[in-house]
Amino acid sequence: MLTLPRRVATAVxxxxxxxxxxxxxAGRPAREPAPMPAESASAPTRAQQTAATPDAVLSRLKAxxxxxxxxxxAERNVYRxxxxxxxxxxxxxxxxxxxxxxxxxxxxxxxxxxDLFSARVPGRRITRDVLGSLEFAAQAxxxxxxxxxxxxxxxxxxxxxxxxxxxxxxPVRDILSASxxxxxxxxxxxxxxxxxxxxxxxxxxxxxx
Length: 209
What we know:
Order of helices and strands: HHHHHEHEEHEEEHHEE
Oligomer: single chain
Strand content: 15-25%
Structural class: alpha/beta
Radius of gyration: 27 Å
CATH topology: Beta-carbonic Anhydrase, Chain A
Number of helices: 9
CATH superfamily: Carbonic anhydrase
Shape: globular
Strand order of the largest sheet: 2-1-4-7-8
Distance between the termini: 83 Å
Number of strands: 8
CATH class: Alpha Beta
């Protein structure tokens, strides 16, 4: 017969093993699944930029926005990317967006240093200078896509200014009309120029058809 101290010790040992018993586990809530490892990303190289197609770049931006919305951004070493792009840059896309403090294209598309040419202007007003910057991004910078990104706080339409300083509301087709260079690059399928809108409540970017 077990003595009282032995009985106490046996009872304590049985209680200690309960968490590992099937009956104990059956009454416990299911464990949360392990989080998926974050995707690793780095600044694009010349070879990666050259190999990218306009459609692939749009898919890349859409996938990045999905990571942003779901809270699973890619892992990046920002300092390493800054060093690797110090002498040259090979961005995939150019984004025109409103001057804003509540979002940035890099965050909305989950892109890092070296991925995007970013032009931020009040109301996304595409002046001659901004248009020239986009032409530079396409011809010299090698981008494969230009995205005109609207946000609720801004006027939904970009503006192309005349030399006199007055502006006309201009969708993407008028931006192409103002730039023979971009128009030719679109015709040759070297680049795409699209518009999109960002929902400030959800962070979701929707591309226009």
